[in-house]
């Protein structure tokens, strides 16, 4: 560990290179013949909300834009999302969902009503991007769909009619209206949520009241055979609130509920009033960010304990459909647009969360990072015609072999730890899986801001000679890609061989490494 006097010095000299201070020693054993649950590809889901420049300019520029597009969708962004193999998209919110009326977003775009986005910046919402555009986006990218219904300001009839409009294959008025608007076949709705954050922006409800509303509304959400989505209830967030909502909903909602949602954001300082900076942050905020993001492990574990008690058959999934880093607004920008820069710290946070989600893959079948483009912990940032890929994008790209892979058992034999105030964090997190291609993949994350980790892996059940893949790291804690320098942080090839009967990894501080074993 770094002595306190050195930590102070590093805090003062944050933007200098991340020099090696010491080496942590870590040892794991990987059992390739001990299969675990399937890691659902939708753990790598994305979130698209009508917020800031997340949709308008970020994804949709209209057909008449000078920015290269296909039917109004940015070609560069669509290409990047396809290469990322985005498995799932959630839309239209978020808090926006509970003020979104679906009829505002269908028909001739020129005749759609302009509303005010009261949640995010008070800007005009043209409704140019609506139901048909969302499903076209998902189909262009090859993603499944997650639609969030309006419980807060809608009605059961409005929600039921939207579902009929999207899924009906009959000769009904609503289905024919969809056909007149250009879509003959029903849309494929894979997931449908009844409300969002009912404890907060969705209505400030008690969980008991929401459970009653859910039972009421879900009664009328009907689809043709073979078109039923998985229905999701709006759950809690944080620790105590999350447990209460999970407990009440799993006890009181007795039909038409396939999963309970859960939200958790990583705040560097652990408080909403002053969250912390996206760049130019001290080492102390790197450390507190890691401490706070790892708390989701315990929160998920406790919520799953509640589900095991109330739903021992395992019928109810636990979906973390909003998560990611949330920083203070950048000076000079509209605070309600939630635009923030994205550094190597965000990539490390993302990878650490992936490893946690894999751990609980038996019930955690879906997560959605907030958000896909230009909002919070985004994959992509745009500035008019310019586009760049963030470190978080590359973390997702490196982990694509884990989509629908089979989790493997990893035992920790020796772990180094770092003391962060009253908290202790492991030096390294790890996850392993058997990919759909039959190969074994390993992901290692060095959480330390300053220290390398020397990792030794013993493989049981299979002989190995070396590992080959990619490594993502940087020489500064707040290293990030800019439009002037879009390739500053990106993965590089990585390879290591067996030493003394073990596979040896030397992990730089603040790094993500994903390899295939040979």
List keywords for this structure.
TIM Barrel, 25 strands, 2 domains, 10 helices, 518 residues, alpha/beta, Immunoglobulin-like, nine-stranded mixed barrel, disordered N terminus, eight-stranded parallel beta barrel
Low-confidence stretches: 1-20
The percentage helix is 10-25%
Mind telling me the CATH superfamily name of the largest domain? Answer: Glycosidases
CATH top level assignment of the largest domain: Alpha Beta
Number of domains: 2
Structure annotation, total helices? 10
Strand order of the largest sheet: 1-16-19-20-25-22-23-24-21
Helix/sheet category: alpha/beta
Distance between the termini: 33 Å
CATH architecture of the largest domain: Alpha-Beta Barrel
What do we call the CATH topology of the largest domain? TIM Barrel
Shape estimate: globular
Approximately how much beta-strand content do the residues carry? 25-35%
Biggest sheet record: 9 strands, mixed, barrel
Count of DSSP strands:
25
Mean pLDDT: 94
Radius of gyration of CA atoms, rounded to a whole number: 23 Å
